[in-house]
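Standup notes
- DV: blocked on the single-chain target, sequence here:
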Amino acid sequence: MFQYHCLNPIASVGLDLFSDAYEKVEDMKDAQAVLVRSAAMHDLEMPKSLQCIARAGAGVNNIPLEKCAEQGIVVFNTPGANANGVKELVFAGMLYASRDIVGGIEWCLQNQSDENIAKNAEKQKKNFAGTEISGKKIGVIGLGAIGVLVANAAVHMGMEVYGFDPYISVNAAWNLSRSVKHISNVEDIYKECDFITIHVPLLDSTKKMIDAKAISLMKPNAIVLNFARDLLVDEEAMVDALAQDKIKRYVSDFPNPTTVGAKGCIVTPHLGASTAESEDNCAIMAVREIRDFMENGNIVHSVNFPDCNMGACTGAGRIGILHRNVKGMIGQYTTILGDANINVSDMTNKGKGDYAYALIDVDSPVTEEVVAKLQQIEGVLRVRVIK
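- DV (later): unblocked, structure below
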């Protein structure tokens, strides 16, 4: 019996995918798997029983990845599960920023008691006039699951689309419209585009990548959209530029004291993935990741260990070994198994940064004594007997 715990409410359409072999527990200390959305985990004590964490969403800033890796806890996320919801909100943000829809709505509310509101609206609407997005240039920074959808949809909206992503995956490249112009220097996007939308993960290398210098290159009518992470933009510099009319609008899905109420800022309360469909998709993907790992030892969409997939185990046994990515590990594993007269029928070992994962199929059951010997190898973080 596997036990799991939910740190946040998780859509039932996902939890219903757990088989009778899984039991939901109310205390994380009893769990082998945890599902989480936005709950902060950095100050939580990870129980020794915990083997994996699935984040029902893409960002994992609320999870201590290094701490989990050192304890042999695999952390999953659900890339692409909420991509369509975010894409649609990006276009809502573009329309809000280019047409002053917000200003028009506020005028209507302020004049709701006016019996002549319809007549007066005809006089006032010129104050909320905007521009169409068709024919405008949009720069999409980051062509992952969300960025590709935004870029392709922008093509269909009649926009001239520029894409920047030096690390674009093969899968994303296949899905990207051929009408998207590939840009090798992000500064060309800053200089040329009317709309700039960012869709990259928050890393040390991307923190405040849209800084004062980048903003200074933009057109005075530029609209910047940030539905990825607030720290990707130097928002103090952004607010200063808006105050001086150096750019037109900043649309953000991350409210904070710097941007809310500032001139030229349109801020929404982190609504990007707040759709029933996105929550369902994230829950479904997270549960499937947990089940595949717990039942087969496969790792798909991990952020702290390498992906590794050997399908379902059809042999006598399978073990998974989470370890540091150093030389000589495989030889030590096979020596211990060979000394125990256990034949290796299939195996794979993948590395990712400082950590690695070995998945080994064997022709006979692995004893507790063998597991103990494997666990004693320097650099081994956790040994799991999957079958």
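- Follow-up: The mean pLDDT is 95.
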